[in-house]
Specification:
The chain is an all-alpha fold. The chain has five helices and no strands. The protein has two domains: 7-42; 55-102, no CATH class. The protein is elongated, with a radius of gyration of 18 Å. The termini are far apart. The mean pLDDT is 84.
């Protein structure tokens, strides 16, 4: 999966597992929304960490699959993931995010 937004059936499964473990009422769906939002951020952050921890930009994709693959990850899944991360479309999206985030400023206290 390229995006957390594409994982609708998995989101429902995750939420159902959580509500089996924790007993709460959520008639307005706020708790569900918060749980899935946090899971999405964790999913995104974990993918980024995997890429930056294991990908060696001095090596080819094939070399990265053979020698720099995270333990327990299927080689073809790692190849797919690297191709996705290195695609032009993904690089453009990463560039947009990097341009947007530094411009966000939160004033906490003190003079503006």
């Amino acid at each position: 999966m390229k995006s957390w937004h594409e994982m609708k059936e998995y989101k429902e499964s995750i939420y159902n597992d959580v509500i089996k473990s924790f007993h709460f009422e959520d008639p307005k769906g706020k708790i569900k929304k918060d749980i899935l939002k946090r899971m999405g951020k964790l999913w995104k952050d974990t993918r980024s960490d995997l890429f930056h921890t294991f990908y060696d930009d001095t090596k080819s994709i094939d070399e990265n699959v053979k020698k720099h693959k995270p333990r327990g990850v299927d080689p073809e899944h790692w190849r797919f993931f690297l191709r996705y991360r290195l695609s032009e479309e993904t690089q453009e999206n990463v560039g947009k995010t990097q341009r947007i985030i530094p411009n966000k400023c939160i004033h906490i206290r003190g003079d503006p």
